[in-house]
Fold:
Amino acid sequence: MTGVAQYWSDLVTVALLGADRRDPPQPIPGVLADLAADDPRPSPSQRLLQQVAATSVIRRAGLMPAAAGSSTAPFAAPPVDLRPATAPQATASWRTMVSNWPVLEDEWLRAVVATGHRLAGELVAPLLARHRTDPVRRALVHVGAGPLAAWVVEHQPQLAAGGLARTSAVPAEQLATLPELTTLVELAAVLEASSDVVADAVAGGLNAGVYGVTHRGVLVNAIARVRADALPQLANALDRVDPSRPIIGLAYSLAEMARFRHRMLTELEPA
Structure:
């Protein structure tokens, strides 16, 4: 790239002075010279624009194309992982989740592993970067990504683990267990209850004024841990909260979260 950098500097100088005052530099040997020979331009300004465009492509690519017949070793592919990749819908859900409902990511990662999926390739680098220093989530990403995780880190060392994640060994049972979330005692008591009991505890509590906007955090945590089959009925009950109440915005937001969590788990169910 040194020769390309100097050539680019020379092109910039000519562009600043004007091609009518100075001719463009001679193209450096290789693809740039070949382009000039194969597609000759009649005027200095046209030759300058041609070389500027071609050199810009090379600079963006970061290297010069190899000469024909070169013995450059082929790029080694990662080891094969026969698990089905997470579907595009699940990938889109992860992006929505980390923006709107990050509390759900722990369950999503465990569901990927538990349902026998592997992380889609486009998710591996973002997840490695996101959890560089978190030993548990980092370990889950490695399990979900399989051999692709180590392959990506080999080629992008900046994604290697840092902090505690670099040295911490995570017990298998910790990978399988969801972390506890802080919620109210009365809500924690109904997390495994039937759908109607869950709906009455959350939506009924909002309707009755038991919970307000200051309880948003503990309500979000409760919906993140409510039994999955209760989520549709809970969402419907939240939709029916009295719209004249000040907490109606919170109710609709929680209903959206309940439906989102149900959908994200459904997307990962085995076909």
